[in-house]
Amino acid sequence: MKNIQIYTLIFSLLLFACKKGGTSDPVIDPVIPPATYAFSDLKVNGTFSGFTYYGLNNNPVVKITFSSPINISSVSGNITLTDAAGNAATYTPTLENNDNTVVITTSTLQPITKYILTVNTGLLSKTGNKLQTSIAVNLITAVDDTDKFPRITDDELLTLVQKQTFKYFWDFGHPTSGLARERNTSGNTVTSGGSGFGIMALVSGISRNFISRADGLARMQKIVAFLKTAERFHGAYPHWLDGNTGKVIPFSTKDNGGDLVETSFLMAGLITARQYFNGTNANETALRNDINTIYNGVEWSWYRKDNGTTLYWHWSPNYNWDMNLPIKGWNECLITYVMAASSPTFSIPKSVYDTGWAQNGAMKNGNTYYGVQLPLGTANGGPLFFSHYSFLGINPNGLSDAFANYETQTKAHTLINYNYCKANPLGNYGYSENCWGLTASDIQGGYTASSPNNDGGTIAPTAALSSMPYTPTESMQAMKYFYYKLGNKTWGEYGFYDAFSLKDQWFATSTLAIDQGPIIVMIENYRTKLIWNLFMSAPEIKSGMRNLGFSSPNL
């Protein structure tokens, strides 16, 4: 009886659904999607390798095949060819393969440029059907192998690169302080470490007769007068200063006090200038005395943080030691321990170097990468600035201590970086024996420390060029490629721009003090050993490095 009642209820519901007000609803036809056709094949210059093509000639031919014959009149407006900025490039479309294949013959494209070929769904077949999904093909043209500038001798090219790069520190130096701006867009923000490199560049420029000794001395007097009144924190300068007022500009919220590493770069530059301006006249004598006062005022030992076993990078009057970054090797900070150990007033003992910096030998490596054994540091050596910043002044040739031979270390690090780029395990377009060098630099949309372990496809000219003393043949190859082959893409008002990516067709327009300075200085060290000889001649440097256990013909 129960089942009969259920069946009766179901029948009544069905009857109600079919009738409304005594009439039947109209029958609704099913929705039929519009007919489409599909993409089936792609060839660029006769080959298929996905939807991105590198190293193309300036007149590539693109053939796109579909499942249906194409209406040629619908190509216009539905197949576009533009560069990355959206500027249209012209092309000629034709059909082949029973009209199933659209052949795109381009006009002459620009070299080293990315183009996007887009096929929209509005492209119609001959029966009026639309394309199922749109298509985008990336077409990246090759470097034009012609020379962009007249050939000059290698020696002339070295001088030209030094002279053009020197303009960053001379022409673009901050007008009030004389210090180096952080980068070419920094306004009043000057950098303490980059200014140390700039002071070494200034000495190189005087030696090369880019400016007179008198003009160089006047600039140094301006710099030193500013530094005497600029804000300091237990003797250490901040990373950034306001070039007008000398007040700290915070590098980050808690990094608003002393930066011991940046200070060490600055002090190395000042000591170099002191050794260069060795005249007996009143102006040069006063300059040397002022530099001594500034150097002797850095409280290196205080940055041990309560007399500890290592140096610390930062101290803030607001946040104290909150940054909590001990300075440990192996990286760019060897010079910090050397400057601290050499201080006549606030020196550190060898135990701080051994325990803090060298970590009692834990900074040693000894493994082989790309056929080269690396004495110190992380796998594959890290970014190349590790072998640049400290060695602008410290001469690594014949230098050793209990932990490494530093001539071996710097050359091995550079060769690993070069060999990695040459091997190009990630397949980054553009890498070669002529186009190499991974270090900290601007990248597209930001900044990073590039290395074989952090490789996004960006080459920084400073990496190879500042390695000139270590790998002169490989570095000269890179310099010629950057200058002659890439031309104005990488060469500008202040020498080479900071970085570029042939993979992404991106070229920086920036120049940075910490990248431009080492180019001038290390080329000069390669040519004359000028900065090495000056810095290593300082009596307190000799004494300090000997106390740390270093031996060298230069000590």
From TrEMBL:
Keyword tRNA processing applies: no
SbsA Ig-like domain sequence ranges: 58-133
RNA-binding as UniProt keyword: no
Keywords: Signal
Domain Glycoamylase-like: start-end pairs: 325-538
Domain of life per record: Bacteria
Classification via InterPro entries: Cu-Rt/internalin_Ig-like, Glycoamylase-like_cons_dom, SbsA_Ig
Entry protein name: Ig-like domain-containing protein
Species of the source: Pedobacter agri
Lineage: Bacteria, Pseudomonadati, Bacteroidota, Sphingobacteriia, Sphingobacteriales
